[in-house]
Structure formats: C-alpha cells, structure tokens
Amino acid sequence: MTSTDPTTPSKREYATPTFQTTRLTFTPLAQTDATALHELRSAPECMKWSRQGRPDASVAETQKWLDGSLAEVTAEAEADTAGPAESRNSRPDPRKDVVFAVRELSHVESGAAEDRIVAQAGFRKAKSEVTGVERFEIGYMFVPGVWGKGYASEAAQGMVRWWFELYPGDSESEKPEGIYSIVAKANPASLRVMEKCGFQLVAEGVDDHGEEVVEFCMNNE
Ligand SMILES: CC(C)(COP(=O)(O)OP(=O)(O)OC[C@H]1O[C@@H](n2cnc3c(N)ncnc32)[C@H](O)[C@@H]1OP(=O)(O)O)[C@@H](O)C(=O)NCCC(=O)NCCS
User: Is residue 79 classed as helix, strand or coil in its secondary structure?
Assistant: First the structure.
C-alpha cells in the first residue's frame, strides 16, 4: 500500500498536537532530540523518580530510550488504525503514551543556537500500583537548573487543559476519565505541585519498589 491509499494512515496522523503555555512549548519527542534531552536524563536527582530509577550513562543510552519510547507510541497508533477502515477509529487516540519535549518559549523565540529541552512530560495508560485500576497517568520531570520557577505547575495545568479540550465529551457517557498521578511521599516538591494544581488525593499505598506513594486525581468538571 502507498501513503495515498485511504486505508493507510500517514505518519502525520500519529503526530501529537503541539501546544504552549505562558512560558513553555510542548512538542512530541522526536528521534533527533537525544542530545538536547540528555542533560535531563543524565541528572540523578531527576531520574531517581523515573521508572528507570537511574540516570542514562551516555547520549547513546538516551537515544536508545528515545527509540524505544517512540516505537511504543507508533505501535499504539498503528494498533488503533489496523483492520478494515469501517472498524477502526478515523483518528488514532493520541492519549496513548504521549511523550512531549518541553522547551522554554523565550529560548525558542530568541533563536538560540543550542537546542535545550527543559523537561520531558506526558501521559500513559497504566494500571495504578496502588488501586490496580487502569487509567491515564500524567508525568513530568524538569532539569534541576529550572526548578522553583513554577514551570512544573504551569506544565501540569497546561497538559490537563490540553487533555480535556481534546476530549470534552458532550454527554454523561462520553465524559472523559480523570487524570491520575502517583507521587512518592518522599518527594515534597512534586506533592506541592499536585496541591498547587488542585489535584485531589484519592489513595495511598506502596508502589512496586516498596516506596510509600500517594495517588492523586484531577477530574474534568
Ligand atoms: C517535582 C518537580 C517536577 C517540580 O518542578 P518545579 O518546576 O520546581 O515545580 P514548581 O516550581 O511548579 O513548584 C514546586 C513547589 O514545590 C516547593 N518545593 C520545592 N522543594 C520543596 C521541598 N523540599 N519541600 C517542600 N516544598 C518544596 C516549591 O517551593 C514550590 O512551591 P511554591 O510555589 O509554593 O513555593 C521537579 O523538582 C522535578 O523534575 N523533580 C524530579 C522529577 C520528579 O520528581 N518528577 C515528578 C515525579 S511524580
């Protein structure tokens, strides 16, 4: 099949929408982002809260993670558009494992030669380690050099807005699910971001690594 075949979705259909907040810009992570992303993924104080739990040792390892992550996103989108045209979604569901590169608008607009990614952020469908319920989870981590500027709170609020605008729902049955987040009790900055953004505490427990965690939810109200 060629890309002009109406039953074959083009790569463009898989693209996650790009959006901005007051100071940040969100674009889908790209294969070419490894070098710009490495500052973040090599920071131990960030990566200790990630599923990987340790920093990437080299740009090559960041590239490997990136390749794997993008392959998952594409596979999800392809699964969504597989099969006869009449039985599949006309548009892939972009809520599946969306991963954004976050840049500072001021940096992008100044045309700086260096490409700097200040955060990795996204949504993934996952089973809660606390309740066992499958739902959508928000996540993000910022390079330590920009902590304390309110960026994470701005990002979380912007991402939640983007999410609910994408699937507003016009009847009770179509009402989109809430957005969840799991935060370690030992991570006060992240707990504070949840509080500032208005997430509600819904459960407490222990994650797969034995870490005490709190689960939060933001409903679309
Ligand atoms: C958690 C993280 C995203 C916060 O990013 P940020 O841009 O600094 O967040 P904000 O500036 O929006 O808000 C942080 C809040 O936490 C507060 N805070 C920071 N460190 C704190 C601490 N040790 N104890 C209590 N509060 C703390 C800040 O004062 C701020 O609150 P305020 O605005 O009321 O003063 C960032 O530290 C990070 O990327 N950490 C590593 C990865 C991570 O933990 N990701 C989240 C996993 S759930």
Answer: helix
